[in-house]
What we know:
Blueprint: E1 2-3, E2 5-6, E3 9-13, H1 21-24, H2 32-35, E4 42-46, H3 74-87, H4 94-113, H5 115-122, E5 142-150, E6 162-171, E7 176-181, H6 188-199, E8 203-207, H7 209-213, H8 218-222, H9 224-227
Parallel strand pairs: 7-8
Antiparallel strand pairs: 1-5, 2-3, 3-4, 5-6, 6-7
Helix pairs in contact: 3-4
Amino acid sequence: MKLASSHGGYVIPYGTGSVSSSQLAAFDDTPLCEVNLPGAPLVRVPCGSRVPLRLHDVTYPFARQPVSQDLAHGRDQVAFLEAHLAELCGVWNKPLRRFIHGYFAAIRRHVQEAASELEERLGPVAGLAELEHWVFAAPTPLPRAHIRLTALPDSDSPDNGEFHTADVAFWDGAGLMCCFVSGGTMIGKQLRAVNALTESGVRVIRLSAADCNDQHTLLDLLGAPFADFTPGIRLPQSPFGSQGIPYPE
């Protein structure tokens, strides 16, 4: 089995309990912008990409559109995006929500620990960009991600375009990485997903509640692109810069 690609990229639906018909359309000729909608978000990663998919790279189809006065500062923008991604975990999935909040706490901590260097790198744009905007350079978590696998050319396995759901997916620059956040014993469906993804060459990590709560070690557990995510970024960016955020009426 291998990852299914479409039109030069890997399409990853996320943030839903199952793959919808509108998301399936993204594997055909439909432009991504027409199917990346609230309730059915997805991303496309270019095949062969060697850079992480970062928080500032994604166009987020917010169900509740923010207004400019709520996003006046970097810390407000980070908090809004954290709440948005936590909502995509589902109402009852407490372990997954714990991961999202733990991840944001860890990347905030990383930026604060490197504050002197990062503020110096802002240089002449200091005041326009803020220290907290560096948080958006971290790889973006895709909660409840649906990974489509297809049969290899010489395989006897049926090519049914099967999807496997990971608690969280990342494109970390080396490839796809999936996390499973366990509140206890994994159920059969999760174990099947772990096995299928691993056999397809996807890096799979299992995390405990304690791992998610430990801001000191979580990024190290996820790997090098997470432990230090700002090298190579000249200036920080915000995913809200091109969102066309309206002023309140």
